Amino acid sequence: MASKLATRRGYLLPLAVGVIGIALSVTFWRHLLTERRQQLLQATVEAAVQTEEVLELGLVRQMEILRGLRDLWSTFDLRPMPEWRADVNARVDRIAGLESLAWVDLDEPRKRIAAGTEQSPEELQIDVEEARRHFEQPYLAPPAPGSARPSEYRVFLPVRTPDDHAGVLVAHLDARSFLEYSLRARPAYYAVSVRWDDTEVFSRGEPSRDPSTSWWEVADSVELPLSGQWHVTHRPTPELVALRLNKTPHYLLGFGIALSIALTLAAHQFRTISRQARSLTATNRALEARVAERTRDLQTVIADLETFNYSVSHDLRSPLSAILNFVAVLREDYRERPLDSGGVAMLDRVGQSARRAADLLEDLLQLSRAGRAPLSPEQIDMAAVARECFAQVRESEGGADVDFGVDTLPVVVGDRDLLRNVFANLFSNAIKYSRHRDRPQIRVTGRVEDDECVYEVADNGTGFDMQFVDKVFGLFERLHSQEQVPGTGIGLAIVVRIVKRHGGRTWAESSPGAGARFYFSIPHGEAAA
Amino acid sequence: MSAASILIVDDDRNEVDIALRAIGRSDLDVKVEIARDGVEALAALGLESNGNPSSRRHLRVVFLDIKMPRLNGWEVLRRIREDSRTSDLPVVVLSSSDRDEDIQRSYKLGANGFIVKHVDPRSPGQYLADAARYWVELNQLPRYHGRR
Prior knowledge:
- With 529 residues, chain A is of the alpha+beta class.
- Chain A is 52% helix and 19% strand.
- Chain A contains 11 helices and 16 strands.
- The model of chain A has no long low-confidence stretch (mean pLDDT 84).
- Chain B is of the alpha/beta class.
- In chain B, helix 4 (100-108) links the parallel strand 4 and strand 5 (113-116).
- Chain B starts with a strand and ends in a 10-residue tail after the last helix.
- The interface between A and B is medium-sized, with 25 and 25 residues.
């Protein structure tokens, strides 16, 4: 559960890295797009303003030149002179959009002078009546609707000499060529369209069809010198849009998203690796601890085994030494005389020693069995087992005069043979140490405590000093010499081992001369394996 | 001058009897005292907690078994060396063990010798009689020894 939670939390950091990265990328991308559009719009507005200035300047210049020519004509008293005409021709080239110039002498309407054109004055379509109408005021005549040349317009400039000679200067102008000339130096990045009223008189360049920019246009009006105005529209061309609004932000966005995903994966990978490293370290540490623990256990076992081997060889060597020694003595002392009571005593010693060696081996076998034999647990009537067992021990240990009593004992689950062995060793012990009493007593009692059954075997024998209580249960440990109390020093060690295999404890209480009380406990229910 | 004596501390009655026989058969003029475990040994030396050590100036050596009921030989040896009255009493450890750690431990606790019990079928227990002869007849103790 905890590890699952940790795993889920492990995804949070990479996820946060990814989301923040993508959010930043998108924000930057949108900012970049807006800014670039605004820049483009700004540039278009600036271009439109500049175009307006250029056109207004051109128109003013055009008008000034025309006025100049009119004034020049006035000084020549409206008389056409060849040199004047050449002069005019030279100037006409400098007037953008000028198609032709004609002077109409209102006093002599037939007398017309044309300049700036290959056509003769007669060929020029000049409406004298119209000119006469504009004798009072300068006038700009816009293109006639439905005309074959929709961009052609005319300017009428009246003139009157000091001697009251009247005429009108008629200039035929073409808006298209004027605009073409004026805008020739303007950058080609904008599609420019000029309308005169509702008629388009000029257009240059194709506007962008890009849906995101096609609606952009900067409209301006340019005042014409005398009357009317041009509507100038600027739109960015596809080239400009492609240049200014190229794919860079999109690439940056893609790059940002890719980077975020990469960072997410990297963070995830990093967390996975670091978690694996952590768990690996923990596993290693646990393994090392276990190895150390096992090594300690093994060392303990080895040390125990060494002690055991040493004790066995020591305890077995004593009776064997005795046998060898007494046999040697017998051979030496009775080589040439019959066996007397001293010899028989020595033979008894040999027999006793051999018996002790055999007992020792038997007890060792029992000890080994107590540790190794598989437990076969069953319900056991401990009182019955104790009675039955005592009958056997009484016979073998010679405890005919022992006053033996068994209380009601708690029933327990355990291995019948092994538990019988526990009683056998405790009884044997009790008989040996209370033999010298006038009325040896052995009492077996039992009670149920918290989670275990406790059994007590009490005698009224020698007892022991509690300072030696640890030695009482120790393997090969004895509190008395062989002559005082015979024994191998294994019996109580067997008791401890069997009780331990049942999951219980063994302990004892005593004081010298006041008898001993041996206790063992077995847990309720199933016997421990 | 009373006869020199030695103290044999061993819980194995057979071992003691063989030793006594070997010493008896030799011409060694020595009195042999026996203690059958560590507690008895301390009593014989007057080293029990409430004891009042008698004069032990005739005691030439203690042969001390290690593995005994109640108090083992090393514990006895430690008590002998701790008490100023017996601290320079010769003690020879007598053991069936020939483990190096047992030998080292014995000497560290202040043993003057270490004899491994063994069986010699031609003359049982002779080694002990020989060792006793060395300590009783050959070994010279400092003069103040025994004047405690």
